[in-house]
Amino acid sequence: MSSPLVSILIPCYNAERYIGETLESVFRQTWPAVEVIVVDDGSEDGSAVEIERFKTTGVQLIRQDNLGAGAARNRAYSASNGKFIQFLDADDLIDSKKIERQMARLVDRPRCVASAEWGRFHSSPNETRFDPEPVWRDLDPLDWLALSRVDGLGMLFPALWLVPRTIADAAGGWDETLSLGDDGEFFTRILLVAESVLFCPGARCHYRSAVPGSLSGRKSPSALASQFRVTELCEAYVREREDSERVRRGFALSWQHLAHASYPYDSRLAERALARARALHPVVIRPGGGPAFTVVSRVVGWRAARCFQVASGRP
Question: Which among 215, 244, 269 is the end of a domain?
Fold first, then answer.
């Protein structure tokens, strides 16, 4: 029997420094049937030249004007042929057996999605730590979503997942109106279509942190507004299926984390987020920081402490 084709789909915008390493990790995959599609989303650096180095290995390069990561992913998906889909950001990495180990579980359970181990790194993937999480086991999708948000955070970034095409079709494409947090919105929809989340021990991916100019680090009004909309949509999707105490508590924490990250960049949005949190659950958290921040926060309140924190150069 032939191996089902897996499509690895990568949006790329000004990722010249990272895309080569990402593609090297892709072409080290031990799964024998992959196609690799990279959409250069109007890069202004040498990303396209770097991608062209991999033409002999079969990478397909599509160029378009700068329309955003969601549009680039949708473009790649429409050009793909795989029965299984691996979305991957242009600065993240996957271990060589990642897809093989996920396919071993998915091939006979096409109504499920496969998750993986993950960890953060800054400069070298060798420094990645894989610290087990409560969701590192097979779970019902609602249980996965609730457990991943138990502290109000959770990670649903693209490299984690291997998704049957039938599930991706049923969930619908990426929302191109979103920027920051769009992966959380997309994969929440993916999980709510799936029958189960299958955890794959040893299938590993590396999340690159602290990338200069990255979308996840932006504090612009448009980026914060996108994260607000993502949280709003995800809350609606999940509570439509389960409006429980654990779900409301998790989203109350998510709204507070967003408020803390937004203040003082967009104080009105921060207050709206806090109002959403209070309407859901009485749980209260305060923004984190070092000893000085903690002391200042107790004396003058966390809002003033955040102003001092930002003024000192911390995001």
Answer: 215
